[in-house]
Amino acid sequence: MIWLTGGGCASPRWLTQEGAEALGSASAVVYDRLIHPDLLLLCPPGALFIQAGKRGSDHTMSQEEINRLLVELAADHPHVVRLKGGDPFVFGRGGEEAQELDRHGIPWRAVPGVTAALGGLLKEGIPVTHRGAASAVCLATGHLEAPSESYWGSLARFDGSRVLYMSASNLPENLGRLISLGLPENEPCVAVTWGGWGRSYVVGGTAGEGARGGWASQVRSPSVVMIGGSARVRLTPAELPLKGLTVAVCRPMPEGYQTARRLEALGADAFTLPLLEVRPTASREELLASLEGADTVVFTSPRGPKVFRDLVMDLRLLRCRTVAIGEGTRRSLEEMGIGVDLMPERADSRSLAELLVSCVRPGERILFLRNRRCSPLPVEAVRRAGALALELPIYEMVPRGLPWRELILEHWQDTRPHAVVFGSAALAEAFADEFGPLPAGAVPVAWGEECAKRCGELFRRRGVVMASQDLDGLVSALLEIRGSEHPPKHRGRG
Prior knowledge:
This protein has helices spanning 17-24, 63-76, 94-103, 119-123, 149-157, 171-180, 207-211, 255-264, 284-291, 303-312, 327-335, 349-359, 377-384, 405-414, 425-435, 449-459, 471-484; strands spanning 2-6, 28-31, 48-51, 54-55, 58-59, 80-84, 108-111, 137-141, 161-165, 188-193, 201-206, 223-227, 246-250, 269-272, 276-280, 296-299, 321-324, 365-371, 388-399, 419-422, 443-446, 464-465. By secondary structure, it is α/β, with parallel strands linked by helices. The protein folds into 4 domains: 2-111, Tetrapyrrole methylase, N-terminal domain (Cobalt-precorrin-4 Transmethylase, domain 1, 3-Layer(aba) Sandwich); 119-232, Tetrapyrrole methylase, C-terminal domain (Methyltransferase, Cobalt-precorrin-4 Transmethylase, Domain 2, 2-Layer Sandwich); 246-275 and 401-484, Rossmann fold; 278-399, 3-Layer(aba) Sandwich (Rossmann fold), CATH 3.40.50.10090. It has a 5-stranded parallel sheet, sandwiched between helices. Strands 8-9-12-10-11 form a 5-stranded mixed sheet. Helix 5 links the parallel strand 8 (137-141) and strand 9. The radius of gyration is 27 Å and the shape is elongated.
C-alpha cells in the first residue's frame, strides 16, 4: 500500500490524525524538501528514508524517477508513505503518482494536508473568502510550461480571490500579463512566503506596483500570492511571543518533540534533534535486588520511569517513597500510575540534593535509579547526611542517527537558528560530533549549570542558563535572546 500523504504547510501540529497514523506504520518514506523534518520522527525505528523532493527548479529526482521509485518500493515494503508538503493533490503532482500506481495495479490511499492557500494565508489573518469581498476562490499555478492567453485571461476576469502557487520567480511577469488582459492596475495583492511557519513574512501592494518590480521583488520561494478578492481584507490574529525565532531543540524523544511543538504554539520554528536515545543497562534481577529494603527511590530524569517499568514489569513491587527531580519526571511517573511523594522546587541536581538532605534520616537506604552519566551531587549529599546511597544505572544515552540531517540544514540555510537548546552536557557533545560548531550567531540555551559549562568548552559560548528547567524557563530564556537581537530577515531563494 502506498499512502500519498500531505504533511501540511508548516508545523507537524497541522498534520492530520490519519497522516500521523500513516507515518507511524511506514516501513519506507519518500519525502519532499518542503516538509517539516520533525514529521519523520513519527515513523517507526528502522524505516527507510529517501529524499526525493523538489523546490523551485532545484530537483533531487525527476517526477518520472519518483514514480519508478514508488513502484519499486511497493514490491519490497508493505507500507510506503509518499510525504509532501501541503496537500499532495494541490499542485503536488499526487495525481500523476496515483496514475502510475494504478497502471501497475498498486493499491494506494490519499491523505489530505493543509495547503498553503488555506493555512498559510489564514495564519497571517488573510481569509481566502470573505463576505462582501470574495465569494469564490481560484487556486492556480503561476508556473506553466506553455502559458496560454485564455488561461491568464480567465484569471484576469475571475470574480473572487485568485491564489497563485509557484510564482515567486516570475511574479512581475505574471502580474504584467494579467494587467494586459484586463486586471486593474490598482487590484490589491498580498504574498505570504513560508506560509504557516514562524519565519513567514507578508508583502503586498497593487498589481501595477508588483508588475514593475516593487513589492514583488521581495517574494521568495515557497510563496503563495493572492490577487484581488479578499486580498484587501486584513484580520489581526493574536500576536505570538516567539514569532520569528528559529530554535533547535536537542533533547531525547519524546521530550524534545513535545518541547518543539509547544514552542511552535508560541510562534517559533522548532526543530527536534534527538541525537541521543535510551539504552537499558540493568537487568530485572539487578533492579529487584536493589529495590529490596529501599526506603526511598529517586528518579533523576523523565526517561528513568519508563525504563523502570519495562524492567520491573510489576509496579506493585515499588513499595517505598518516591522522589522525582522535576515536573517532567513527575508526569512520566504519574502517567504509569506511580505517585510522587517529594519533588524539589527547581528541577536541578543541586535542588534535589538539598531536598534529600532535609528529609532523609541516618541509616535509610536511598536508591538512585539513574542515567549512567549524571551529576554526583544528590548521592554525595545523601551520604553526608548519614544515609546509605545506592546507585543503579538503569540506562545510558547512546548516539542516534538523523537520516534527514541534510533536510534540517537546508531549512537552516533559509533561516539560521537563533538558539540551540541543550537538555544535557551529553547532548551538547552529541551536537558537536554531528554538526560541529554552532550555527553562526546561535545562542546555546542550557538545561542547567553543568550543561552551560560544557557548552562553553565545546562552542566557546557559555550561553543562557534557564532560570527553571521547564517550559516557562525555556520561554524566558528565548525571550531574553529575542530581546538582545532582531531576528534576521528570511534569506530564501527565489
